[in-house]
Amino acid sequence: KANGQARLLLIDGHNSHYTKDFLEYACEHNIHVPCYPSHATHVYQGLDIVIFSPLKCSWTAKRDEYEASTRQKVIKSNFISVYSKAHREALTPENIHAAFCKTGVWPFNPNVVTAEMMAPSLETSSSGHLPLPQPSPVWAVMGVIRQY
């Protein structure tokens, strides 16, 4: 199917996402498998960044349209027909290309991801207060339990 051409499959670098057998298969079939850096997929995953937001919006609109026009809920038996409309609307070649461009994968642009984007999260609180105060219904139940 690839007519002898190499293929590229980008994956998360976490070792739970690939096996030795998978990598051997990829090598035998001319599939190059570069891994995103560990703890960085939030920056590099174009689908999350560009595709899923429009898909979610489109899905909501198509579901609402279906339910308004048919007066029926989306269930297993009609899900694919409704979802496929949202899928076709959101997963356009333009959006897919934009996903790779936004993350600097294609065309390759290492400057898209900045050092600030890769910096560890800042701790917003370093103090905790335990035990946490319980809402009044919990106190009431605990009081009843203590009586027995």
Automatic annotation (TrEMBL):
Domain DDE-1: 2-100
Species this protein is from: Paxillus rubicundulus Ve08.2h10
GO MF terms held by the record: nucleic acid binding
InterPro entries membership: DDE_SF_endonuclease_dom
UniProt-recorded name of the protein: DDE-1 domain-containing protein
UniProt lineage: Eukaryota, Fungi, Dikarya, Basidiomycota, Agaricomycotina
Pfam families linked: DDE_1 (PF03184)
